[in-house]
Every structure is written in structure tokens, then in C-alpha cells.
């Protein structure tokens, strides 16, 4: 028989089934070789920056090494 639909708070949502379009959008344009190379270079730059920050940041974050010698300033020497 007939199916009962649940009440919808907005009438335009309930009537949206009636206004479906049968027009398909045009296909997307393919990216040119220059655009692909540009996107690749940007991606590689971002990845290289992240890797570089990890390489430089890891020694600073390691707490298991103690300094080999302590530095003293000349002001602390008794003249």
C-alpha cells in the first residue's frame, strides 16, 4: 500500500524529491603538467619541513643525556 513518511520540519525538504534534475555536470578539467608539478613540489616541501623539524627537535627533546661539562662564566671566577 502507501508508505507513510515521517513528518519533516521544512516543507522544501519534503518536496525535494519532485525537483531532481536529470542534467549531469560537465566533467572536471584535467590538471596540466605544470599544476601537477607545482602540487608535488608543495607537498614535498611540506614533508621535508616536517622531517627536518623532527630531526632538529629530537635531540632537544631527549632528556636522558647529561651535559659532559658545565659552563662557567668569567664573572663567576674570583679575580
Could you characterize the architecture of this molecule?
- This protein is an all-alpha fold and 79 residues long.
- 42% of the residues lie in helices and 0% in strands.
- The protein has helices at residues 11-14, 33-61.
- The mean pLDDT is 77.
Characteristics:
79 residues, mainly alpha, 2 helices
What separation lies between the terminal Cα atoms? Answer: 105 Å
Inertia-based shape: elongated
Strand content: under 5%
- How helical, in percent, are the residues? 40-55%
Task: Record the SSE blueprint.
Blueprint: H1 11-14, H2 33-61
Keywords: Membrane, Transmembrane, Transmembrane helix
Transmembrane segments: 36-56
Summarize, please.
It is built from two helices and no strands. It has 79 residues and is mainly α.
